[in-house]
Amino acid sequence: MSNRMVKLARRPKGMVKRDDFTIEDGPVPEPGAGEMRVKIEYISLDPAMRGWMNDTKSYSPPVGLGEVMRSFSAGTVEKSNNPAFKSGDAVQGMFGVRRYAISKGERVLKVDTRQAPLQRWIGGLGMPGWTAYFGLLEVGQPKAGETVVVSAASGAVGSVVGQIAKIKGCRAVGIAGGPDKCRYVTQELGFDACIDYKAGNLAAQLKEACPKGIDVNFENVGGEILDTVLLQMNVFGRIALCGLISAYNATEAPAGPKNIRAVLTQRLKMQGLIVTDWASRVPEAITQLGQWHKEGKLKIREDVREGGIDAFPDVLNLLYTSGNFGKLVLKV
Questions:
Q1: What CATH code is carried by the domain that includes residue 87?
Q2: Which domain holds residue 163?
Q3: Which of 107, 156, 260, 329 lies most in the core, judged by the most C-beta atoms within 10 Å?
Q4: Cα separation of 61 and 223, whole Å?
Q5: By the 8 A CB rule, do 131 and 61 touch?
């Protein structure tokens, strides 16, 4: 068995293409002193990946040309020279898009596959779940009785945000694309309402779903959706800016928010967030999310795609065309 891997060959322009990557085989690596070899079984596909390919100033260095594509992944320790891990341990970490990874155990977490399947630990119980937990509670700071709006509500982060809002006694209103996703958000996840932005008339539907206005906006999309929400925010509302996926594949700089004046007139707080801001508190998120999940208060859905390493470029683009339904995961 070889070590199949995806490397970044060039900086993409617009949607990623297969030619932006090279897919190649290498030898199965042997762990050195203090290292372990992980056989990767699932690869997380996240919107942030598109930004990691750009050579621009960001919260982390870009993936270098010729380097293995960065990703959160989950798998099993196959061979270990690290006393903290043993063969057979289920783990998750930033292992990259490849079949085997060598790690010294830094920022690698053991996970309990008796509590939840392996792929869930790179989804709702992994980085997307941590992002929802800290982004909503620390930045959004919802109070019982308030209205929380979340865009991309059926996605990996948004679906968890809305459920936490309900747990905290808030009215949860989602925005998603298509009637099937909206039905899932309300009927299965328990949101109070969900608006299909593809149906048109977003502003009127949002006003109907939020009769008391919007206190917290958890923003994953940006663009027209953010502009529409801004005009319905309440005084001293909070906006947790998690993502701007509507512009991730733009070939020209997108226009800024047209309704930014609402930040002034409504005295809003808008704050960007990256999950690593709370790196030291990740165990807290794992414990609380796991407890809610065990109690049935937190439902999580994965969209697991077949095809292995070679399918990565095509599966990744599903994130940017609303082609996934739940947390997008690639099975190796």
A1: 3.90.180.10
A2: 127-276
A3: 156
A4: 25
A5: no
Q: Are residues 133 and 272 in the same domain?
A: yes
The total of other beta-carbon atoms located within 10 Å of residue 282's CB is 18
Are residues 154 and 102 part of one domain?
A: no
In a domain, 282, yes or no: no
Residue type, 4: R
Alpha-carbon distances of 232 from 94, 224, 258, 262, rounded to whole Å: 38, 13, 14, 9
Q: Kindly state whether residues 115 and 153 are assigned to the same domain.
A: no
pTM of the model: 0.94
Q: Given 276, 293, 323, which residue is the final one in a domain?
A: 276
Same domain, 115 and 185: no
Give Cα separations from 259 to 122, 150, 233, 332 (angstroms).
35, 18, 11, 44
Identify the CA nearest to 50 among candidates 239, 250, 302, 233.
Answer: 250
State residue 234's pLDDT score.
98
8-state DSSP, 68: B
Closest by CA position to 152, among listed 281, 74, 241: 241
pLDDT digits (tens, 9 = 90+) for 187-217: 999 999 999 999 989 999 999 999 999 999 9
- Assess whether pLDDT exceeds 90 at residue 249: no
Q: Is residue 286 part of a domain?
A: no
Q: Which helix (H) or strand (E) holds 37?
A: strand 36-44
The closest of 130, 157, 154, 170 to 278, measured between CA atoms, is 130
Same domain for 134 and 272?
yes
Cβ–Cβ < 8 Å for 110, 80: no
- Under 8 Å between Cβ of 246 and 227: no
Pairing of β 214-219 and β 21-26:
unpaired
- How far is 244 from 223, CA to CA, in rounded Å? 7
User: Residue 118: what pLDDT?
Assistant: 98
What is the DSSP code (8-state) at residue 12?
Answer: -
Residue appearing with tokens 């630990």: 121
Query: Do 62 and 75 lie in a common domain?
Result: yes
Q: What is the pLDDT of residue 250?
A: 78
Same domain, 134 and 270: yes
Instruction: Verify that 136 and 18 share a domain, yes or no.
Output: no
